[in-house]
Amino acid sequence: MPFILSLIAIAGAAYFWFNRARNAKDAAVDILDAANDVRLAARRFGFKRRTNGHPVDDINEPEVAIATIATAFLELDDLPTQNQRDQLAVQLQYQLNQSPKDAEELMVLGRWLMQQCGRPDAAISRVTRRLYKFDGVHSVEPLMTILKNLAGENLSDSQSDCITDITHAFRL
């Protein structure tokens, strides 16, 4: 009887470790897929990163900067819901004349750039300065339209502060 119980325990332990190894493999594949999505989105929009600078300093397309600011704007208070992400994709399509696939890729690249800044408010500040530097006030109208459509009537305190900071950064 003890021999049978020990065989069952060994089989259970082997099953447990087999499942842990399989889950670790699946997690590694998911991480590689996410990294590949960012790489492909960056390539599609011509984003080239220098080795000795911050990625935000390499933004040269207003669409990428606007998507980064909008993504950070959604994450100021909490992680966005699927409905909010879908609404952001629609706004990017409509305001920036992007295809659905391009809007999704802009969101992926914008989220990565936001994460490189550390916090959403730091990303908004840094990317807004960069956007003003290379595009001037040309991008203010689509950016503010996207942000106001995302927030609707119920702006949080941090979101209203963000809009104020953006207007100051664009010297409006």
Explain the overall architecture.
The chain has helices at residues 2-44, 62-74, 82-96, 100-117, 120-135, 140-151, 157-169. Helix 2 (62-74) packs across helix 4 and helix 2 (62-74) packs antiparallel against helix 5. The chain has 172 residues and is mainly alpha-helical. The longest helix has 43 residues, at 2-44. The chain has 2 domains: 1-34; 55-169. The relative contact order is 0.12.
Query: How is the main sheet built?
Result: none
Please tell me how large the radius of gyration is: 22 Å
Number of strands: 0
Distance between the termini: 83 Å
What is the N-to-C order of secondary-structure elements (H for helix, E for strand)? HHHHHHH
Instruction: Calculate the mean pLDDT score and round it.
Output: 82
The helix tally amounts to 7
Secondary structure class reads mainly alpha
Total domain units: 2
Strand content: under 5%
Task: Please mark out the parts with pLDDT under 50 across 5 or more consecutive residues, or reply none.
Answer: none
Shape: elongated
Q: Roughly what percent helix?
A: over 70%
Short description:
The chain folds into two domains: 1-34; 55-169.
Topology:
Layout: H1 2-44, H2 62-74, H3 82-96, H4 100-117, H5 120-135, H6 140-151, H7 157-169
Helix pairs in contact: 1-4, 2-3, 2-4, 2-5, 2-6, 3-4, 3-6, 4-5, 5-7
Summary tags:
172 residues; 2 domains; 76% helix
